[in-house]
Design goal:
This protein is mostly beta strands and about 130 residues long. It has one helix and nine strands, in the order H-E-E-E-E-E-E-E-E-E. The strands form two sheets. The protein has a five-stranded mixed β-sheet with strand order 2-9-8-4-5, with no helix packed on it. A four-stranded antiparallel β-sheet has the order 1-3-7-6, with no helix packed on it. Strand 4 (about 65-70) and strand 5 form a beta hairpin.
Length: about 130
């Protein structure tokens, strides 16, 4: 039994070595890294901006069965935003701290609820 345990331990170590070290850091491991479908966001995460700042999300979604939803401080503001040429914009921020989430959403087929495929959240302050 002890020999079998050692063999399994060696196999586990070999498998871990083949996959890379657990300490390896890639862009996808970075919680602040933008998903592939987002080109940029404004204001930048953690920044301070003026109260009349426009939130902009440049994205790569052109498929008709998917869209980008924007949630500002917990409220879905997609209907108040505009999305032209892959740039989603939202105006109307007040002074204070804000959290914005953009979601890549798939339109429902027979389902009643939208399917959120991916999302990105960041925060910033307006002065």
């Amino acid at each position: 039994m002890l020999r079998l345990s050692r063999i399994l331990a060696v196999l586990l170590l070999l498998a871990l070595a083949a996959c890379g070290s657990a300490d390896d850091t890639t862009a996808t491991d970075d919680p602040d890294a933008l998903p592939e479908w987002i080109v940029r966001v404004q204001p930048e995460p953690g920044s301070s901006a003026t109260a009349n700042t426009v939130v902009e999300v440049e994205h790569r979604i052109v498929e008709t069965e998917r869209f980008v939803r924007i949630v500002v401080d917990g409220t879905d503001m997609t209907a108040s935003a505009s999305d032209r040429a892959g740039i989603l914009t939202f105006e109307g921020l007040t002074q204070g701290s804000h959290t914005v989430t953009v979601e890549l959403v798939e339109l429902p087929g027979d389902e009643a609820e939208l399917n959120v495929i991916d999302s990105y959240t960041w925060s910033f302050d307006t002065l």
